[in-house]
Amino acid sequence: MHSRILKSVGLVVASAGLAFLSTGCKKIVPVTLTCNAGAPSIYPGDPQTVTATPANLVEKKNWDALYTWSGTGVSGSGTSATVATASLDPGSYTVKAEVKEGKKGKEGVKPGETADCSSDFTVKPFDPPTLSCSASPDTIMSGGTSTITATGASPQNRPLTYSYSASAGSVNGNGTTAVLSTTGAPAGSITVTCSVGDDKSHSASATTSVNVQVPPPPPPPKSQTLCAIQFDRDTRRPTRVDNESKACLDDVSLNAQQKADATLVLVGNSAPVAPPRGKHHKKELSADELAAQRAVNTKLYLVTDKGIDAARILVKTGTSGQNEVDDYLVPAGANFDNDVPGTTVIDENAVKAQPRNAPPAHHHHKKAAAAAPAAQ
């Protein structure tokens, strides 16, 4: 501290030194200055103001007080200054101020007319963002999709950018939502990673999981029962495909044409046949022979009259006990023997097909046979 003497009206010299007249001296207190930062700590870009508070200024006409400021990013000319903080790196900073008073144009010339001060503040680094991640739905069938939602937040409201990745399948999106596609993904859990970053190179990540289920395979196709044709109307020709059978076989043919990869199975059947009476009785076909002949004759009609490939038709015998041929459509992949058990494959080398116009078989009365009406 320095004292300023404004007036001296008398001076006495003593052996011990100098002394002021008790009634002729006036003592002035020197100026002081205190600095105070508006906030002790800030983030880059936050406003910061530093205030200088003087004391003991002389309030006198023609006297003035001049302030100067110094420090990184500091600007000011009066009792306050501002700091440009946007470009400041995290760390500690000091702002200094100085005041000079005195007659205008001669401020700070005399002792006690100058004072200075300083104030410190800290620039804090931005806090990293936070992030949570969720999936809806979290369980899907393979090939389905799930919506991924990322919820990010920046404590200092910095702009955020989102990205996503997945351990299987594919995920697409760059905002707060993305879509996970599981096409081609195996059954099991898929981990989706959500990431967020701010404009200050800070980042955060979170994960969520989606359970992928693979549906069971569809059941194998089954053999389809079509119509059946009857052989009870023509007792003289019990294996002939008659006119009444055409409507049924037209439908069988249409089904075969509509499903080109399917096959047809024709199952011939027969009612029980009475044993022959007497040793001279004409030979009758057995039930098995009748059943086989009916199936083979039905195939011949479908091949010759309806144009169905013979390789697509299988003939068999069954055990229904009826004079009929049951017709089946067998899709690709179906197992007829599992669907219709108890049938027997016919040897088509042993059983020859008979055309519809073949006359009835006679062992006697050839003339009567010659006079028989033409086949219908």
List keywords for this structure.
25 strands, 11% helix, 5-stranded mixed beta sheet, 4 domains, mainly beta, Immunoglobulin-like, disordered C terminus, 376 residues
Description:
The protein has four helices and 25 strands. With 376 residues, the protein is mostly beta strands. The protein has four domains: 1-29, no CATH class; 31-123, Immunoglobulin-like, CATH 2.60.40; 130-213, Sandwich (Immunoglobulin-like), CATH 2.60.40; 224-273 and 285-358, 60s Ribosomal Protein L30, Chain: A, CATH 3.30.1330.60. Strand 9 (74-76) and strand 10 (80-83) form a beta hairpin. The N and C termini lie far apart (144 Å). The relative contact order is 0.09. Mean pLDDT is 87; it is low at 1-24 and 363-376.
Mind telling me the CATH class of the largest domain?
Answer: Alpha Beta
Structural class assignment: mainly beta
Count of helix runs = 4
Strand order of the largest sheet: 21-24-22-23-25
- Cα-to-Cα separation, first versus last residue: 144 Å
